Amino acid sequence: MKSPLYFYKFKKKMKILTLSLCISVSVFLGDAMPSYASSYEDLMEAMENRKSLPVQSNEIENWPDGPLIGAEAAIVVEANTGVILYSKNIHEKLYPASTTKILTCLIATENSSLDEIVSFSSNAVFSIEKGSSNMGMDVGQSITMEECLYGILVGSANEVANAVAEHIGGSTEGFAEMMNQKASELGCLDSHFANANGLHNDDHYTSAYDLSVIAREFFQNELLAKISGTPTQHFEPSENQPDDFILRTHHKLVTQDYTYEGIIGGKTGYTDKARQTLVTCAERNGMKLICVVMKEESPNQFTDTIDLLNYGFNNFEVVNVSENETKFNINNADFFQSNNDIFGSSKPILSLNKDSYLILPKTAVFKDTVSSISYDVEDENQIARIDYTYNNIYVGNASVDIAADVSSSYDFDSSIEETPKKVEEDTEENVIFVNIKKILLFVLIGAGILILLFIMKSLLQNYSFSKGHRRTRLRRRRKDKWPTYKFSDKDWKI
């Protein structure tokens, strides 16, 4: 008679076999098996009709024309600047499906450590739809948070997303509240989230724009970016998880089924109503582009993404602000100098951030942009921000930074070294930086002017004295010409 352990292992093997079959099919179709409520012909016709929908970015003057794709909505945004290169119905509210999970994992990393143990409740395991993506976890099993992140992002495991939601939010409903709060903090405009895995709920929606906002934050996290770009992940047995299995991502640009240079990572999504959704990040030529495609048919979510990424990389370029800006030339401002050396060269205490750049069409140049300066900045190391537009479209900004080191490089007496530091601490809000070289130059110029005036005055006075002396000599000469008479007593006789 076979032992209970034999039947347990047999059950697990059958479960893993079934899981592998579902994953193999879903790799081609998406995150879940499609229903056949609509015929293939109807879906293809709807996709072709969507190609005629307007592309808003194509209506911008002197902006490169983007591809006409079959997705209902799509966006291409430069991750570091937030510049939108391509926009099609980017604020339309649509179902995100499993692309929801980028927000789930973002919140998870911000509210837990990787070695935390996440347990699986009955609700986490059995509340997901039958046939939807999972990694075969059973009630009572547990894995680390790091393994959960791989399970969610590589395997798109819905029960793992539920377990993480319960672990962090106390319940799936509590975690959904955290999701909506985080989305609001990031600046999302069109979203409401009802669960952590993206399974269909009429009250669970977002937009291409909002997904790009979330993705920008997501791909700033190096660990999340790395996991989302992982083609396969091997799970080994542990004390609370007895199975040995491999998960494979559904993202065909990550697996290189569609070869594309510079892919960082991304997340797929599918439900019957959402259709195919896809978030992808790639980097080339100093630009990191995020592409979001919503409501498309397989495999066009991948080909659309390739076309859109090619559009971005081929038609736009990075333009460094500090190397081109002349209007806001901080280095030439006399009053923004520090006293680094009493007799040496002084350095500016304010400067344009040397890493700030714009994203411009290759047909445009820096002088085509219009700039505006704002002093409403939150970073204490910045004093202002300069925003740039091209044909009224935002193309990036540059910060005006306070120099990190404005301390004096000279020391007259080491015995009084502590006193100036204390004064500086006490009067930090009222410090005025003076350029010693400039002051000395002004003093010398002033002294030179005074000396010049004195010389001119002396010359004028000498000229007047010489003229008076010349007149006196003339009068004397005239007297010498008149005859001199001497009168005697005889001359007075009458």
Sequence of strands across the biggest β-sheet:
2-1-9-8-7
Instruction: List low-pLDDT spans.
Output: 1-13, 15-30, 32-37, 332-344, 406-434, 490-494
Helix content: 25-40%
Measured distance between first and last alpha carbons: 189 Å
Number of strands: 15
- Average pLDDT score: 83
Treating each run of at least 4 consecutive H or I residues as one helix, how many helices? Answer: 12
Q: What is the helix/strand order? A: HHEEHEHEHHHHHEEEEEHEEEEEEHH
What does the overall shape look like? elongated
- Sheet/helix structural class: alpha+beta
Tell me the major beta sheet. 5 strands, antiparallel
Task: Give Rg in angstroms.
Answer: 39 Å
Strand content: 15-25%
Q: Which descriptors apply to this entry?
A:
494 residues; disordered N terminus; disordered C terminus; alpha+beta
Notes on the protein architecture:
The chain is an alpha+beta fold and 494 residues long. It has twelve helices and 15 strands. Helix 3 (101-110) runs antiparallel to helix 5 (145-153) and helix 3 (101-110) packs parallel to helix 8 (208-218). The longest helix has 46 residues, at 436-481. The chain is elongated and about 125 Å long. The relative contact order is 0.11. Residues 1-13, 15-30, 32-37, 332-344, 406-434 and 490-494 have low confidence and may be disordered.
